[in-house]
């Protein structure tokens, strides 16, 4: 019969290697060198916005690095663009539906 491993035993079996800034930057080049701060889950780094010509940086938790590549401003812009795109698609579909309904009435 196998017994469940305690958290301690698990940690021993699967040691978590803390990521170094070099390892992080290899994977996520938009991370600013020497910007790693904090400990454990509270670790954070600076990222440099990946938009060309933008030099803004932003502090993010290391666990969010993979999904954050833009400064606040450009992130907002991108979100707005996505919303507009969705709205436009919705309007087009709505127009189609109305047209189909009108044609059905004839
Ligand atoms: Zn930016």
Structural class, from helix and strand content?
mainly alpha
- Helix content range: 40-55%
Looking across the biggest beta sheet, what order are the strands in? 1-2
* Average of the residue pLDDT scores: 90
The global form is flat
The biggest beta sheet reads:
2 strands, antiparallel
Based on CA atoms alone, the radius of gyration comes out at 24 Å
What small molecules does this complex bind? Answer: zinc ion
Distance between the termini: 74 Å
Low-confidence stretches: none
In what range is the share of β-strand residues?
5-15%
> What's the total count of β strands?
2
Task: Return the domain count.
Answer: 1
Number of helices: 3
The arrangement of helices and strands along the chain is: HHEEH
Can you describe this structure in just a few lines?
With 106 residues, the chain is mainly α. It has 3 helices and 2 strands. The chain has one domain (17-105).
What does this structure look like?
The chain has 106 residues and is mainly α. It has one domain (17-105). It has three helices and two strands. It has helices at residues 7-13, 21-27, 72-105, and strands at residues 44-48, 57-61. Strands 1-2 form a two-stranded antiparallel ribbon. Strand 1 (44-48) and strand 2 (57-61) form a beta hairpin. The longest helix is centred in the last third of the chain and has 34 residues, at 72-105. The radius of gyration is 24 Å and the shape is flat. The termini are far apart. The relative contact order is 0.09. The mean pLDDT is 90. Zinc ion binds at residues 49, 51, 54, 56, 70-71, 73-74.
